[in-house]
Design a protein that fits this description.
The protein is of the alpha/beta class. The protein is built from 11 helices and 20 strands. The chain is 27% helix and 23% strand. The protein is elongated. The chain binds pyridoxal-5'-phosphate (PLP).
């Protein structure tokens, strides 16, 4: 009997992380942030890469400021980083959440006067403040920044968020001008405006702290970052069956591909339930030993069929890599670079 008999076999699909590329991306974004420090947006499980896999690498690279959206995410983050380095973007919606922030020792990002009052009533302490400079999402409206309660806060980071930093448009300069006014009106230890794309808008946008997310994980939201940001996430799937098709054989749901000649195809263990959505049907590619192999027909829930014509030695149990460089994958699939990362499902083994 084998020693591991009865143990759970390894998953047939995985998300390989290039940890060196992740560390290098943070270092590059920190350098591009000039005199400001780069933090890291680690919400949505580091955009799908997995907190346990990605955060220790970012710590080793030198990152010390972390942004999560939910309280559940804060609870996970403090397993890997000191609580006082963690900011919770959604802020305290209830007294229980304000109390939780104080007990855990993380900073809530206060987004409204009612959240400001709730935080002060809970006893206050170091907090962050989000100002809405034109996105109309979370944040205190400019008309309320002079409220007396705001003056009672111990603000670590006063921040705002750019709506269109990935475009060249007048909104960026308009938000910058409004945020400059905020820095004069709201006392805080640090000010922060730029996300990944905002870092590439130049020194005016950097202030004291930047908050990249997407570019850490291999996304390229602006052309200035091309060549400086490396791919981090590599989805890979096992070939679980190989078949020889006769000319005229139909492939997959709704028979959207018909073999024009005898051909060899492989079934790989990744489908739309894993985030490889049906928009990749007939469009995606995988690679194996330097060969590019097209996706044939419709992507199924758990499987995708690929053309093995160019890889005659590829067999059952071999692993193929999905073509998933984010800028190119976004252009091919029509999905945003953010969606491509955050879609990747729970069945992928992450390491
Ligand atoms: C998600 C988020 C970021 C990171 O944005 P990217 O575009 O991924 O770099 C920064 N700040 C806030 C407030 C966010 O919600």
């Amino acid at each position: 009997m084998k020693p591991e008999a009865g143990a759970l076999p390894p998953a047939a699909l995985r998300l390989r992380l290039d940890h060196a590329a992740l560390a290098a991306n943070w270092t590059a974004l920190d350098a591009l942030s000039g005199g400001a420090r780069a933090g890291a947006a680690i919400k949505a499980g580091c955009y799908g890469l997995g907190v346990a896999a990605a955060v220790p690498t970012l710590v080793a690279a030198g990152c010390r400021d972390w942004f999560v959206a939910h309280w559940q995410e804060a609870a996970e983050a403090v397993r890997f980083v000191p609580a006082e380095q963690v900011s919770v973007l959604h802020g305290p919606m209830t007294d229980a959440e304000a109390c939780y922030a104080r007990v855990l020792g993380v900073r809530p990002v206060l987004n409204s006067l009612s959240q400001v009052r709730r935080w002060l009533a809970a006893g206050g302490g170091p907090c962050d403040l989000m100002i809405d400079t034109g996105m109309s999402r979370l944040g205190l409206p400019l008309s309320e920044i002079g409220a007396p309660e705001v003056g009672q806060l111990a603000i670590e980071t006063c921040m705002s968020h750019l709506a269109s930093a990935d475009e060249d448009c007048a909104q960026n300069a308009a938000q910058l001008a409004r945020f400059r006014d905020v820095t004069r009106a709201v006392p805080a230890r640090r000010y922060s405006l730029a996300n990944s794309a905002g870092i590439a808008l130049g020194a005016d946008y950097h202030f004291d702290l930047t908050r990249p997310g997407l570019a850490l994980y291999g996304g390229v939201p602006r052309p200035e970052l091309a060549g400086r940001i490396a791919q981090v996430a590599y989805p890979e799937a096992a070939v679980i069956q190989v078949r020889e098709l006769e000319a005229g054989a139909c492939v997959g749901y709704n028979a959207t591909f018909t073999a024009p000649a005898p051909m060899r195809v492989g079934i790989i263990s990744m489908g739309y339930a894993d985030g490889y959505l049906r928009c990749w049907s007939g469009r995606g590619q995988v690679h194996w030993q330097g060969k590019r192999l097209p996706v044939l027909g419709r992507v199924s829930m758990d499987m995708t069929i690929i053309d093995l014509s160019a890889a005659e030695n590829c067999g059952e149990g071999d692993w193929v890599g999905l073509e998933y460089a984010l800028p190119e994958a976004s252009a091919t699939s029509g999905l945003s670079q953010y969606e491509l990362l955050t879609l990747l499902g729970r069945r992928l083994d992450r390491a």
